[in-house]
């Protein structure tokens, strides 16, 4: 199968095989579990609003709130698109208004570049692109403009100073008011460098400013350039010197979403280079880290095992494998991970594979989504009822162990079910969302392209909501079609068509000769007035009165002949 056809197949997100005797035969009531997931969401969401808003996160044991990642009302941003996936249009609309009025990025706060991108920028972009579907009255020019898009762009611009390094790899932390602090550590994890292309490329395509996509690509390529001779990357790198500080190579914490964004960036942008990079990494990962469908940690230069552990963050990998069509390997690895879940009622942060037990001080489960995420992807591909059973087990475990009066609490230790006073925003952004989508086969997110919306933008007609959504690593869905709505190269044809409509409208009202204005070109030649070779932009700023068919005051990139005849690209 060619790489091009692989990219197309991934982007189309073809529906999986029809459900067999699986779920019904095993007596799993999908609709009932879907409603239980909905109830989980509202139990957590309403208590956040009552007890924690406007802080970032809910503290469910003390029924209050705390700022964690920058004082953005983070849980509200993270939960926004989940509201629409659950069908709550009115609350989506209310929250959009609240965020516009209450969130300020011009604050003296040190923020994680990685977390701000995936949670804030990603959440705002997703909500922006879903606004029309949610019944929000969008402004003229949407999706190429809009208040949530402007907020996402403002947040992203606050992150740009972090990328001003000799290597193009960003610092891990930036002050939103002052930029990078003078004493900031230059050591950043691999994921903190390679997890920007989805959000930043989307921003560039929607706003027309290439700076975001450019810095994201430069960071990706810097990591690629600094891989080891055996094709692996380490865990932490110095962004000034490009020297690897932590040389453990694996698919989990500190590295994970770098690989994820190579695949998702390739699909979103139809970019063969990004997919080729991932496939090369995939070969090295299989050669050096894979053992009996587990993935271990190895030394990046030698390939020798350094940590024989499974980390809960690695559970995204089967879902990623499904996106490149490697479903058989994905299912085998998923089943390994599922055995760990069954053993503890959740995934401990670290699990010692040879010993079959948790690692000291890594026994917690902060309600992470990764195994559920993989189950959702694999169920779409296979309809294997085992995947629904994981969803069932997750609902039962979380409700039994984690549910408290004010929400759902992080499980501090899976061995004795002690709880911690924190509910991360990703619980509502990811964990609940992927569970709901696992149990809701008819959700609009699963659209196979059979229905879609057509919107009019300043650059022509645009198809949206046809499916194939790309989830960022915080589970914020991005509509890939939206990236083709705001292409500036369409501007020329669009403005020409507008001008032609205006011309024929005037012609019907009043007859006039199609010839130059008497003062046309006064003080400058017609050639100087309009440079057809460069798209019709003025060569100088000398004033002249223009004929009806000369350039309007706004930017106009059309090709006009001397006599005013209009030529489209296809003539």
TrEMBL record:
The keyword Glycoprotein applies. Residues 1-19 form the signal peptide. Involved in the endoplasmic reticulum-associated degradation (ERAD) pathway that targets misfolded glycoproteins for degradation in an N-glycan-dependent manner. May initiate ERAD by promoting the first mannose trimming step of ERAD substrates, from Man9GlcNAc2 to Man8GlcNAc2. Seems to recognize and bind to exposed hydrophobic regions in target proteins. Residues 514-530 have a biased composition (Basic and acidic residues). PANTHER family: ER DEGRADATION-ENHANCING ALPHA-MANNOSIDASE-LIKE PROTEIN 2 (PTHR45679:SF6). Keywords: Calcium, Endoplasmic reticulum, Glycoprotein, Glycosidase, Hydrolase, Metal-binding, Signal, Unfolded protein response. It is an enzyme of class 3 (hydrolase). The keyword Transmembrane does not apply. It is found in: Endoplasmic reticulum. Residues 513-552 are annotated as: Disordered. This is alpha-1,2-Mannosidase. One of its GO terms (molecular function) is calcium ion binding. Its main location: endoplasmic reticulum. Transmembrane segments: none annotated.
